Amino acid sequence: MVQADGFFAYATGAALALCVRRSAYPRHTVHAGRDAEGARPPVHARRDAEGARGGAHHFAVALAYFALLFVPCELWLLWRFPGWETMYAGITMTGWPTALFAASLLVLGMLGFTVTRRLVRRGRTRLALVQGAASCSLFVFVMVHGWDGSGYQRFLETDPRVFHRWGEADDVLDHVWLWLGTELALTLGIMAVVAGTTGLVIGSRWFAGTDGRPPKGTWGVRGGRRSSTLFALSLGGTLTALAVAWAAIAFCLFNLFGGALGGAVAAVVFLVTTVPRRGVLAHLARRLDPETRAEGAKPEA
Predict the structure, then answer these.
(1) Is residue 15 part of a domain?
(2) Closest CA to 19 of 168, 166, 178, 231
(3) Would residue 52 count as lying in a domain?
(4) Phi, psi at residue 260, to the nearest 5°?
(5) Would you state the pLDDT for residue 113?
(6) Angle value at C-alpha 3, between 59 and 263, nearest 5 degrees
(7) Considering only CA atoms, which of 198, 210, 195 is closest in space to residue 20?
């Protein structure tokens, strides 16, 4: 959906960047001492030719993924199901609006990849996870709530005439079963398999690195013996579960307290559950980036 696809593109780019092992980035030299005035000197990054080539390769693959697969899938949905893709908001997406939509998805996807990559290479894996989870959560929230609390109704209907007849007595499960038998559901399923499998292959290969094995001690991998595909699935599953849980809580808060107060409380709930150094994402960051701990430096994550 147009209103939510930007968050989805950013989250997808962030997920791809999280799968790149820090060993594939240019190495960092961390100075933990203090100078004569007692100030801690900055972290200095030392680029080498191998790291620069690796970074360019990852960027090119991510760019190709968005340009050749992600964006065309979204444009196909917009062409085949224009009302559903715009959430029946009465927006006409032809000509320049469609071109701007495609360009924005490409830019946001690569922005998520670039920002996350910079955070990870600086050892701030926890912050990289937080901003990726935030984008994923906003995507799910827009799909479920929308701007007026009817997001799930707009998602489950392919006919605008049926959508406008929704009432409080309607059974959501009945609409779900009917939606599963539509051409839209089949199209989304095929796209999810193709794009999801491709992203999974890319992410697992990046995480495996040059030796074909994940680094020892990473989350979801015991001693580097399990396939890196398990790591990619575990990472995506954890972030998706957190996003769905937060979106469900935010949906209830918005309906209970209204827009402004509900949004403020939902933001506090998200920050309390994701930002603390002993939270779920902090634990995931420590398992995701054992190389930072091995260096003996105190990472941000």
Answers:
(1) yes
(2) 231
(3) yes
(4) -65, -55
(5) 96
(6) 105
(7) 210
49 located within any domain: yes
Q: State the pLDDT at residue 289.
A: 64
Are residues 203 and 217 in contact, defined by beta-carbon separation less than 8 angstroms?
no
Q: Are 264 and 231 in contact (CB under 8 A)?
A: no
Find residue 44's DSSP bridge partners: 29
Q: Is residue 143 part of a domain?
A: yes
Q: Give the per-residue pLDDT at 296.
A: 38
Q: How confident is the model at residue 21 (pLDDT cuts 50, 70, 90)?
A: low
> DSSP of 189-225, one letter per residue?
HHHHHHHHHHHHHHHHHHHHTTTTSPPTT-TT-STT-
**Which phi-psi region, left, alpha or beta, contains residue 62 (left: φ > 0; alpha: ψ -120 to 50)?**
alpha
Rounded Cα distance between 185 and 140, Å, is 17
For tokens 């390769």, what's the residue? 57
| Neighbour count for residue 227 (Cβ, 10 Å) | 16
> Which of 258, 251, 199, 207 lies closest to 231, judged by CA?
207
Distance CA 6, CA 91 (A): 16
Give the model confidence (pLDDT) of 34-93 as tens digits: 444 555 444 444 444 444 455 788 999 999 999 999 999 999 999 888 888 888 887 777
Please state the domain count of the chain.
1
Furthest CA-CA distance within the chain: 73
Name the token pair of 229: 């595909």
CA nearest to 9, candidates 97, 80, 74:
74
Please give the structure tokens belonging to residue 214. Answer: 């994940």
CA 23 to CA 291: how far, in whole Å?
A: 8
Bridge partner residues of 28 (DSSP) = 45
Lowest mean pLDDT among 17-31, 192-206, 229-243: 17-31
Range of the domain at 156: 2-294
Given this model, what pLDDT does residue 22 score? 56
In the prediction, which pLDDT does 33 show?
46
